[in-house]
Amino acid sequence: MNTLKLQSLLEQFFIEDIGERDLSSDLIFADKTEGTVVFLAKESGIFCGEMVIKKGFSVLNPDIKASVLVKDGEPFEVGQTIAAASGNIADLLKGERVILNLVQRMSGIATLTRRAVDTLNSSHTRICDTRKTTPGLRMLEKYAVRCGGGFNHRYGLYDGVMIKDNHISFAGSITNAVSSVKSKLGHMVKVEVEIESREQLLEAIEAKADVIMFDNRTPEEIREWIGLVPAAIITEASGGITLDSLGSYRESGVDYISLGFLTHSAKALDISVKVSWDRKGEEQK
Known about the structure:
By secondary structure, this protein is an alpha/beta fold.
């Protein structure tokens, strides 16, 4: 993960939440009041967010000491302590909600991705994500997919060519679209073409696409058509695939299955924060 970008994101998120100051924490606690926040799992799942916890608190106060007890990609159980951070209690309270929201979101994506990988249960086909991410959180959400055992599709419009149905319609044909792109594109970037019929598949092969996506095709259609694809071309299935139907694609022979629901429909995991502070052993929840 790009830690410079992470720090910039966290700064933006804290500015949004804190504004001029934290009216609650700043007015309740003395400047030197110390304490600890503990992240506790209220449901089981796959953890993701180690750098968010460590970098997040340090952005607010570099003297805060954070320790993460579960590594990214590892499972945790109900009641397990995931992480703890100690330092100025006002700064801990300023940061815990933003940090917790991100960790819950990322862990939910990692958990759903692991479930998809286990459901597919294939030694050949890989699960990957899409661009259906939350604006501003793409780097974190795609990192969470990797922590869950999945792979990343392109990050944005800038790092891979994907010729979809609307591109084909305006260009006039797959051949025209691919030819136009390849005449101007550097050799380091792949060109993917979305196809919906056998005729489009043959045209994409003839146009020398690097990746061919079977869009909204059944496992049976993919199994029937994939033998036409040269070994040098990567294949992908996408569109309308759910956890319930995922297993039916196991023997389709496709290289990748891209799933938008990994990021747009993942449920945030239930994780809570408990605060203890150095005042006669009292606890504040």
